[in-house]
Amino acid sequence: MSGGPRFKLDHGAEIPAIGLGTWQSKAGEVEAAVAYAIKEAGYRAIDCAWAYGNEKEVGEGIRASGVPRSDIFITSKLWGTWHSRVEECLDQTLANLGTDYLDLYLVHWPVPLNPKGNHPVFPTLSSGKRDVDHDWLLKDTWKQMEAVLKKGKVKSIGVSNFSESKLNEILPTAEIIPAVNQLEIHIYNPQHKLVAFNKSKGIVTQAYSPLGSTNSPLLADEIAVEIAKKHSLQPADVLLGYLIAKGIVVLPKSVTPARIASNFTGALAGAEKLDTLDIEKLDGLAANGKQKRFITPPWPVELGFEHWPPLPQ
Ligand SMILES: NC(=O)C1=CN([C@@H]2O[C@H](COP(=O)(O)OP(=O)(O)OC[C@H]3O[C@@H](n4cnc5c(N)ncnc54)[C@H](OP(=O)(O)O)[C@@H]3O)[C@@H](O)[C@H]2O)C=CC1
Ligand SMILES: O=C[C@H](O)[C@@H](O)[C@@H](O)[C@H](O)C(=O)O
């Protein structure tokens, strides 16, 4: 099976420490990227979402790899307009991907959106603000997540973009603890406290945008470059290896074959070569003036995160 190192989830399943991201991977590019990642570069995990609009092509890429479905860890995510209809959104995702189960299903954001609004993905009010369903409770979304798990349609369930306060909206009534919390985590937004909170609850942290997303300044960070030079690594290897060394799953996205391959081998090399001092230096960057988030959609509700921009007026 391989696919690199794996981390244990609380209920005993295992999750590959490296997965390929697919957000903003375009039609005409993503099938080849996914097939290459699995067949040539050694990936065994793919991170998808209903909202990315490219799940059909991702599924084609998985099949084109020739690697059996059972060897691949597929994650997808429930979008906000579906919080009150979890199984329906999941069924669309399963049909899109051409599979009858997911390895991991996540609540994409802790923000239920109006299912009868003016747009199926991003409903808005006349003010232009996103149309949030303020009457729907996250604990009821979670009940439905538990139901699809019990039905066998998904092997693990988790959340994404949940702060400690949002986790506390579901934990008291949860029968099943989220296996994973997928968050924006990288050297400029390490969220040390939230990662520790996840750990205290047995929740594995996954890092999205681990390279700093599109046009990232992280790859040129002085300290990351210095550590890369010291170990004959690329800066991307340092950014990814740093997270894996801390027990955090990384989800680098690329549609460029050379980067898909080097992110996989480089992440492993980085995790092996970085020493305690390197990790300490990288851990301290955000607190020393480099704190920055790259993914801050204009949700008109408090998410409870540190370092989140003011809500839209
Ligand atoms: N749960 C959530 O809300 C979110 C989840 N995610 C998930 O996490 C994944 C990763 O996050 P994402 O925001 O895409 O950002 P990443 O940090 O993975 O960065 C992706 C960008 O970096 C480029 N890149 C990739 N590898 C290298 C490299 N070795 N050297 C230089 N540039 C490189 C890619 O370009 P190119 O493709 O052209 O090679 C792309 O522009 C997403 O694809 C998605 O699956 C992301 C955001 C939010
Ligand atoms: O997973 C990727 C991100 O969460 C992305 O789906 C959102 O940031 C979305 O573009 C939004 O504007 O809300």
Automatic annotation (TrEMBL):
<dbReference type="GO" id="GO:0016616">
    <property type="term" value="F:oxidoreductase activity, acting on the CH-OH group of donors, NAD or NADP as acceptor"/>
</dbReference>
<feature type="active site" description="Proton donor">
    <location>
        <position position="52"/>
    </location>
</feature>
<feature type="binding site">
    <location>
        <position position="108"/>
    </location>
    <ligand>
        <name>substrate</name>
    </ligand>
</feature>
<dbReference type="InterPro" id="IPR023210">
    <property type="entry name" value="NADP_OxRdtase_dom"/>
</dbReference>
<protein>
    <recommendedName>
        <fullName>NADP-dependent oxidoreductase domain-containing protein</fullName>
    </recommendedName>
</protein>
<dbReference type="InterPro" id="IPR036812">
    <property type="entry name" value="NAD(P)_OxRdtase_dom_sf"/>
</dbReference>
<dbReference type="InterPro" id="IPR018170">
    <property type="entry name" value="Aldo/ket_reductase_CS"/>
</dbReference>
<dbReference type="Pfam" id="PF00248">
    <property type="entry name" value="Aldo_ket_red"/>
</dbReference>
<feature type="domain" description="NADP-dependent oxidoreductase">
    <location>
        <begin position="18"/>
        <end position="285"/>
    </location>
</feature>
<dbReference type="InterPro" id="IPR020471">
    <property type="entry name" value="AKR"/>
</dbReference>
<keyword id="KW-0560">Oxidoreductase</keyword>
<feature type="site" description="Lowers pKa of active site Tyr">
    <location>
        <position position="77"/>
    </location>
</feature>
